[in-house]
């Protein structure tokens, strides 16, 4: 048992006046009287993150610095998103954590394990049930709705880093709305490549004001941030920045009138598992034959489609049997 | 549940942890005791405390045991543990001129007030692999103690005065180095509070207190590489070590009940370096003075403290030209926890982003599948 696990085994401390589901950790003996706080972070640290988030929501797309203390997860592995989730989560939240769209991906499993062990909250794979959804590189296929919060993990929050390495300089550029170099770089890209070659983390303009990196989500997911019903919070732990897209806020990709923004092209392809033709499809190679096929990146959605098909088939079977 | 090629993630992680533990314990020797690490791997423990930003030899040694001796991994464990600790109060500024000296040298003057104290160093040892250590008997400890006593080593240590004047102060009294800038005052008192990088995100450009804090937590190899670039050619800091001190300093906090008084809450072993570097005029008409660089870190780590001092001086450059003179370049790329974390994160799945890359490339090649 690692020290972190030992601390976790000692069980989370429930916040005063709230009820919490019992976890395995509650049954284990407490070690030396030491307890990690509910959702690991100290209450003061959580409060600081929440204060910063309020500012981020008030100024859509603006990167707000925060202290970003170290977590038991490595920098670059989702510590920004994790701090946002830890500072917001309450005992009645329903949590979904995905990585590359998948609930079962190693890092999603690891982050979920830490959060469940320190909070005891209920988790789900169905994005519609989640009150808090933390994700790396994807938004769920089913558009999120009012009351839901998407927390995106961000490796590099600065969209202007593409054209300017200095942090002091990019902050000035944002403050002055000096985005000329960004536009010129996109123009040069079009001249050299025929289209904008940026594939993920496509820069977008939020609320007609700041240019923002939407985190490394594919182009496919970008339209789902525009005028969305849900709140999106983006956390960059290593770079110590949070920013936000409040509900019903415009998020427009940078594009030229004559070179419009396009999403990934999956024409003529379908998920090998559920048959969907309207989802972001991963390219997968058969371990034995080397043949490539396509499958939904959003595994929770894929499971729902499969279950619906199975349900419909069962109904048809019953009808056929004359029940 | 998912069917991507990391399916069974939970089981794989759990089994990997089992394997990791077995790798550490598989040798037929006894499990390492934390006490042994603390006692016999001093510089490693010190390095982990410094980079992990927590002064606790026990926790650093425990982290080293858990990390099988990997210093970056151990300092990461310590840094994460640090986040869970309550911050009780701010200490008063530490008086390093009241350091209980273990070692003190100056490369600027042959003799200095209080005298040079070589202390424990391998600087003048010939680096010849000592095969007698391969079979070191338990009696070696007694024998080493007798050997040291016969040389009168310990006796000399107790005869040193309580307080040494600093070499830099000698130069400062003669006006040869710029006067000390307005020092951050005690917490609560009027005046400038030092920046605290653990409570706020470092906003660049950082003031000197913030820069020194970031350097104090930086990875030894990282600061060494950048400082070396400045020493070797990419920069113009030609340092002379005015003073290098290693020893114990008292940590004092304001007395909780008696206003104006302070109370000692413990001692830290630190390494402190002051370098004197190239001549500069503070004002166009002013007389030229030496410039100073300062480095201090937890534990005994001279390479780190000297590198810090060189970088501190390099970052004061008014016209940054070399990488080591650019504070963004130095400060944002030398934290071992952040750089190693980001470096490792490339091992995570990037299926979606790579799929998006493939889509772009295929479109640019003319829409082939």
List the helices and strands and how they pair.
The complex is a heterodimer of chains A (323) and B (369).
Chain A: H1 3-9, H2 24-27, H3 43-58, E1 64-65, H4 79-88, E2 94-99, H5 106-119, E3 122-123, E4 132-136, E5 149-153, H6 167-176, H7 180-193, E6 204-206, E7 210-212, E8 231-236, E9 241-245, E10 251-253, E11 281-285, E12 292-296, H8 299-320
Helix pairs in contact in A: 3-4
Chain B: H1 9-25, H2 34-40, H3 42-52, H4 57-66, H5 71-82, E1 100-105, H6 140-150, H7 153-158, H8 167-173, H9 208-217, H10 220-232, E2 240-254, E3 262-281, E4 288-298, H11 302-314, H12 327-331, H13 336-345, H14 351-364
Antiparallel strand pairs in B: 1-2, 2-3, 3-4
Helix pairs in contact in B: 2-4, 3-4, 3-5, 4-5, 9-11, 10-11
Structure characterization notes:
The complex is a heterodimer of chains A (323) and B (369). Chain A is globular, with a radius of gyration of 22 Å. Chain A has 8 helices and 12 strands. By secondary structure, chain A is α/β, with parallel strands linked by helices. Chain A has 2 domains: 41-253, Bacterial phosphonate metabolism protein PhnH (Rossmann fold), CATH 3.40.50.11310; 265-323, no CATH class. Chain B contains 14 helices and 4 strands. Helix content of chain B is 40%, strand content 14%. In chain B, strand 3 (262-281) and strand 4 (288-298) form a beta hairpin. Chain B has 2 domains: 9-82, no CATH class; 96-130 and 162-186 and 203-338, no CATH class. Chains A and B meet through helix 1, helix 5 and strand 11 of A and helix 1, helix 5, helix 13 and helix 14 of B.
């Amino acid at each position: 048992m690692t020290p972190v696990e030992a601390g976790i085994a000692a069980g989370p401390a429930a916040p005063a006046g709230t009820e919490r589901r019992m976890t395995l950790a509650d049954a284990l003996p407490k070690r030396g009287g030491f307890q990690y706080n509910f959702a690991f972070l100290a209450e003061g640290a959580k409060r600081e993150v929440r204060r910063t988030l309020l500012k981020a929501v008030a100024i859509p797309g603006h990167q707000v610095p925060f202290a970003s203390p170290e977590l038991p997860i490595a920098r670059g592995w989702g510590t920004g998103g994790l701090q946002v989730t830890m500072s917001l989560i309450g005992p009645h939240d329903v949590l979904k954590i995905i990585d590359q769209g998948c609930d079962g991906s190693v890092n999603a499993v690891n982050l979920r394990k830490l959060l469940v062990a320190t909070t005891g909250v209920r988790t789900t794979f169905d994005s519609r049930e989640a009150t808090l959804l933390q994700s790396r590189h994807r938004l769920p296929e089913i558009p999120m709705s009012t009351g839901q919060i998407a927390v995106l993990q961000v490796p590099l929050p600065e969209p202007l880093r593409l054209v300017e390495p200095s942090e002091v300089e990019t902050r000035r550029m944002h403050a002055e709305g000096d985005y000329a170099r960004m536009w010129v770089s996109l123009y040069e890209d079009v001249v050299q490549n025929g289209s904008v070659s940026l594939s993920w983390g496509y820069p977008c303009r939020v609320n007609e004001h700041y240019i923002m990196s939407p985190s490394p989500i594919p182009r496919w997911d970008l339209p789902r941030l525009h005028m969305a019903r849900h709140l999106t919070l983006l956390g960059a732990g290593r770079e110590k920045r949070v920013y936000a897209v409040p509900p019903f806020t415009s998020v427009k990709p940078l594009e030229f009138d004559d070179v419009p923004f396009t999403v990934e092209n999956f024409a003529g392809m379908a998920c090998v598992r559920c048959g969907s033709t309207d989802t972001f499809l991963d390219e997968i190679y058969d371990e034995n034959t080397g043949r490539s096929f396509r499958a939904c990146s959003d595994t929770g959605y894929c499971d729902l489609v499969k279950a619906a098909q199975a349900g419909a088939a069962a109904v048809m079977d019953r009808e056929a049997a004359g029940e | 549940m998912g069917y991507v090629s990391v399916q069974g993630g939970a089981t794989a992680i759990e089994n990997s942890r089992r394997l990791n533990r077995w790798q550490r314990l598989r040798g037929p020797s006894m499990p390492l005791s934390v006490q042994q690490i603390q006692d016999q791997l001093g510089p490693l423990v010190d390095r982990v405390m410094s980079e992990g930003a927590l002064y606790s030899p026990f926790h650093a040694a425990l982290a080293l045991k858990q990390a099988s001796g990997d210093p970056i991994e151990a300092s990461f464990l310590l840094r994460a543990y640090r986040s869970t600790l309550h911050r009780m109060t701010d200490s008063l500024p530490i008086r390093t001129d009241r350091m209980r000296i273990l070692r003190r040298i100056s490369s600027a003057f042959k003799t200095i007030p209080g005298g040079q104290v070589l202390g424990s160093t391998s600087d003048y040892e010939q680096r010849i692999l000592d095969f007698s250590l391969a079979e070191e008997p338990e009696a070696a400890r007694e024998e080493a103690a007798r050997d040291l006593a016969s040389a009168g080593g310990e006796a000399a240590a107790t005869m040193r005065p309580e307080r040494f004047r600093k070499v830099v102060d000698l130069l400062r009294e003669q006006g040869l180095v710029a006067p000390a800038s307005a020092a951050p005052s005690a917490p609560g008192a009027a005046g400038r509070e030092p920046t605290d990088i653990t409570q706020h995100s470092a906003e660049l450009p950082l003031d000197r207190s913030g820069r020194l804090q970031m350097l104090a937590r930086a990875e030894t190899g990282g600061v060494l590489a950048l400082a070396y670039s400045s020493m070797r050619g990419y920069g113009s800091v030609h340092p002379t070590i005015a003073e290098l001190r290693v020893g114990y300093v008292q940590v004092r906090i304001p007395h909780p009940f008696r206003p104006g008084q302070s109370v000692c809450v413990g001692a830290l072993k630190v390494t402190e370096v002051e370098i004197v570097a190239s001549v500069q005029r503070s004002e166009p008409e002013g007389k030229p003075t030496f410039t100073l660089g300062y480095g201090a870190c937890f534990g005994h780590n001279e390479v780190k403290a000297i590198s810090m001092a060189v970088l501190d001086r390099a970052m004061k450059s008014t016209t940054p030209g070399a990488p080591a003179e650019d504070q963004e370049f130095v400060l944002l790329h030398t934290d071992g926890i952040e750089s190693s974390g980001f470096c490792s994160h490339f091992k995570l799945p990037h299926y979606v982003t790579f799929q998006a890359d493939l889509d772009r490339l295929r479109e640019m090649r003319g829409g082939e599948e």
